[in-house]
Amino acid sequence: MSSSPLLLNESWTITADIELPEGGGNGMIVTEGGLEVGPGLYLRDGRPTFVDNLLSLERPTLPGRILCPEESRRSP
Questions:
Q1: pLDDT for 8-52, tens place per residue?
Q2: What's residue 73's pLDDT?
Q3: Which residues does residue 30 pair with via DSSP β-bridges, in sequence order?
Q4: Cα separation of 62 and 50, whole Å?
Q5: Is 48 exposed, middle or buried (0-12, 13-18, 19+ CB in 10 A)?
Q6: Which domain of life is it from (predicted)?
Q7: Cα 51-36-9 angle, rounded to 5 deg
Q8: What is the three-class DSSP state of 75?
């Protein structure tokens, strides 16, 4: 039994309140799963980026269309 909700074939949203350091930021915001499977949201060069690890065979990555400003804000 898993403590995580089943996300397969379901609509869902990731929302994160973040504070960026001066000059932007890089790094993981949230992830679910492990080395082999699961979605994640991270910053790459100040841009929110979604990744979905599919059994380590594929990792579709979707970068956000806008950069996060250098102030506290709600990430898209």
A1: 788 888 888 887 777 677 888 888 877 777 888 888 888 889 988
A2: 46
A3: 41
A4: 5
A5: buried
A6: Bacteria
A7: 60
A8: coil
